[in-house]
Amino acid sequence: MEHEVLIRLGAFLGIFILMAVWEALAPRRILTTSKRDRWMNNLAILSLNPISLRLIFPILPVSLALIAEQRHWGLLNHTDLPYEVEIIIGVFALDFTLYIQHALFHAFPTLWRLHMVHHTDLDFDVTTGVRFHPVEIILSMGIKLIAVIALGPSPLAVLLFEMVLNATSMFNHSNIYLPSKVDRVLRLFVVTPEMHRVHHSVIIQETNSNFGFSFPWWDRMFGTYRPQPSKGHLDMVIGLAQYRKPKHLNLWHLIIMPFTGNPGRVPISRH
Q1: Which of 41, 45, 58, 145 is most exposed, with the fewest beta carbons within 10 Å of its own?
Q2: Which domain holds residue 20?
């Protein structure tokens, strides 16, 4: 799709700056570690991910959706649904796929080793939403490509999904203050920071909840929804019990962590 990269990059930068300014003006929690060091590490690992994807994949989801549309691959390319309905189904189905993927990364120890890099952040802000190990990003992209081939969503649906995913990941990881009344309404339609922060609790039962990325309905439907942290948002501890020293969470340690680190007891399959 023409100008896809510029559209996505512009949307990413716009949301990132908005959330960063909002955090500075109205933070929800006081940060416990050096913001400068965390941002350097989180943005550094983010910079590795596009390079990793380009080295591994010759084609990305929007372009693959265009090919699938032309060659009639996938379920939606064999239906007569209105175009608008197909777009809605495509966006929701892809988001549900990522919900399942997220739960699986918490269920299997090998996958958890990759995903725990995201959970080792000792604070919770907009950069946490981009803190993913390159190998996890590669596996996630492979899953999305398979989903695009199987489902056959339109290129526009895939582009919208990717933009919504990037925007909500930064929004629901941000350290912003939302009035409780606003949060109660918003979380009926989108994953809010108050909802997703629970997922980053050091308490294992809370870590293994609220897997939704953009939309909150999957957690409610499949019994993984937890409305609030047991210790409250201001007193809850963020991160993993086995990783509490910032000096062990620099870029180099994050890169080698899946292969040498301690996975702890988080994986669902251990309980």
Answers
A1: 58
A2: 4-270
